[in-house]
Amino acid sequence: MAFEMKKPSRRQFLIASGLVGGGLMLGYAMSGPSRRERAAGATGTKGGEAMVTTWLKVSPDNIVTVYVPHADMGQGVITALAMMAAEEMEADWSLVRAERAPADLAFANDALRGFFLKDSSVPGMLQGVNQYAWYKVAEGMSLQITGGSSSVRFTGQSGMRHSGAAAKEMLVKAAAARWGVSASDCTASMSTVTGPAGQSATYGELAAEAAEYSPSATPKLKPRKDYTIVGTPKPRFDIPGKVDGSAKYGVDAEVPGMLHAAVKLAPVFGSTVVSYDASEVLKRRGVKQVVEFPAGVAVIADNFWRAKEAALALDVVFDTKGNEATSSETIFAAQAEAIAKGESEEDVEKGDAAAAFAAEGAEIVAGQYRVPYLAHACMEPMNCTVWIRDGKADVWVGSQDALGTRARVADVAGIDFDNVTVHSLLLGGGFGRRIPVRAGRSEFPSEIDWAVMIAKEVDAPVKLVYTREDDIQHDAYRPAVTSHLRAVIGPDGYPTAWENRYVYKDDPAEAAHIPYAVPNQSIRVVELPTEIPRGPWRSVAHTQHTFFSESFVDELAYRAGKDPFEYRRALLKDAPRHLAVLEKAAEMAGWGSKLPEGRYHGIAVQESFESIVAEVAEISIVDGQPRVHRVVAAVDCGEVIHPDTAAQQVESGIIYGLTAALYGEISIEGGAVAQTNFTDYEMLHLSETPEIEVHFMDSNAPIGGLGEPATPVVSAAVANAVYAATGNRVRQLPFKLHDLSTVSDKFAQAAD
Amino acid sequence: MSITLTVNGQRHELDVEPEMPLLWVLRDELGLTGTKFGCGVAACGACTVHVDGVAMRTCVTPVEAADGASITTIEGLAEASGAAPGELSALQAAWVAKQVPQCGYCQSGMLMAVSALLTENPQPTDEDIDAAITNVCRCGTYPRIRAAIRDVTAA
Q1: Tens of pLDDT along A317-327?
Q2: pLDDT digits 0-9 by tens, A560-576
Q3: Do B96 and A235 touch (CB under 8 A)?
Q4: B126: domain CATH number?
Q5: How far apart are CA A579 and CA A182, in angstroms?
Q6: Are the beta carbons of A304 and B46 separated by less than 8 Å?
Q7: Both B92 and B25 in a single domain?
């Protein structure tokens, strides 16, 4: 996606402010005091408190509140980011609170913006939102997005740490001035500054005076060895409300006078409403109104069940625009044809792959791979509550991008951005699904768009809730992708050339690249649009490309008669971080040692979102399907902020990826999704969950992402174990499509 | 038709359609949103509550089937388990200790299902747990759910 813009001339700097009554606020600013005032207004900061950054507030009662501009979908980011700020600030953790920042421009993710402007690779899935916001918002890019495993990497590293350190310096200066001593003779610890003669003052007592100082643009950060908060498993702030039923998700929004909406959506993508007869349903108890929108018809009632039952009963005629001819088969056939046609764009060209393949007597290995569409299937069905009146809109939603939601609602409602308020509620799962502009493509509208269109016609707040069937059949899917791989094998069994022809350049851009030392590479992409909505899905393009590349390199290892772990080791001799995680995972799994009867190992490694993950799966074959007993993961994500939530994210990523590998298939039939619910879009259960062991490397590498990188690796690790067990090379996911009960003849001979 | 429910110790007389699922009576009529809508077809267990002590998936349970019953939802679990006011049940405390929830959406149903299992079978084997806890969690908290159950059964 092309994305060009002028770089702003403004400098990013820290701002500070005191507030009436003594207190302190601190934040990064792009453009001066208006931003600071906005932050104070948006957080409801009252007299007696002040903020020292947009992201930190010190109250006179000595409570430090950290405002986190990201959605906590369960990845623990609210807690982890607060830890990073509190560490540098030398705050007493028991006096630290954290809140999700309001959807206001004052809380836009400057760190991510700064990162972007340094011409680094902001995850592409964010760029549509960036671009949109950049266009819409004169102040600059308004990023408040949670995606691309970016929260800790960007906001935490650049924002939280610096804000915390700057706040501490200001508090120490204030104490030194109060006592008439040198700041270098004062120490800050446990939310208290201590002076050389034993003077002592709490941060709360010093906050108002500290706000008189300008924050340093280059505050001194603590060396890692001095950390007391970061690197420890602090209990997450969000857990208590999630065990007693009090946590409020988007679907729990309650607004006085609120009505409920359920929809009848056109099953065939791209359809529009031709006609419908609402006379019967309008007589039903509780039904208030029927509203048409481009992709369907909504029933408005005083209770969701009444709305849903009426919507089910509604007879709607749709114009399918000829799209009913589209099926998974036609899509895959078109992909194979487009690849065969050979009109491709460069992704990687290195050495001279064409010559290597054309050389006389070249030993060529080929494998054609593909993966299907996947739905996200968040546990919380999609929903959005909207109230439009007097030229204003209020929105209650759980979103991965609250500011993007605000901009999108403004656009769809035709209301000024300043007159839209987003009330952020928890998300019952995100995984890339809850981003308002799907992969930056406005032609794939979402439930947020429908909710706004419906609310415009209703004289009350309206809560739109999708049924699970609506959710499965109207997602923005992980795209179905085909990859044709070839390699030239040298006399020593190692590849001299690697060729990949695949469809769809998705994000991150490097997903199809390989870490292996192959001198000649030709990786090229073919674009092929369809009307099936697509969007980011946990780890985005890595979900498909890790399966392709890591299965194919396994094929090459077996072709060479070499152990797949040793084969990768040899090819990774110039990639020390990859090599280290690979070796660690193999060691954890007991690679090469004798396994119990019927058990087999498979290994895979991938770098994504600047973290490197190697996994070894241990499987057996039960009723023709892989039964995964154990998965070990070695992870190099740089520094680990919160070891427990970090391990949770890896466990979670493995289970999410394993579910898709075993069962995940959205198929298109007649232009519509064939699956309906968890009954035919199956989920992994407790009983099928493998034992999972996670090890984090002691690494000084920059902080990498953790929400996604464990997900893509597991499909290849299991596929490679399936080959070890049966000699069947699975080149199409999910596994449930294959009967793996018989060992291939070729493999049986080879094993003899 | 008038339906009588006792929910978390409080009696309610309701004028609702008898076929309305108990889930929507709890959520939209009584405002008890801790019980979650997940699938509508009893496939995920997010809507699990106790009806006269038995775990039930309320998205497919017509309210008339619960007429006259005593119902415990996640909001009343601690009290029904004998915890002091403001305290958590031992099971909920184990959930906190093991930091089980991620997004948390399925956890009300998980806790209700596990609590019913442990009432019936205080020392379940791993196979008993596998068979009884068929609720879906998309964040993959399963390993910690098992660990938290083991915290309670070992106590």
Answers
A1: 999 999 999 99
A2: 999 999 999 999 999 99
A3: yes
A4: 1.10.150.120
A5: 50
A6: no
A7: no
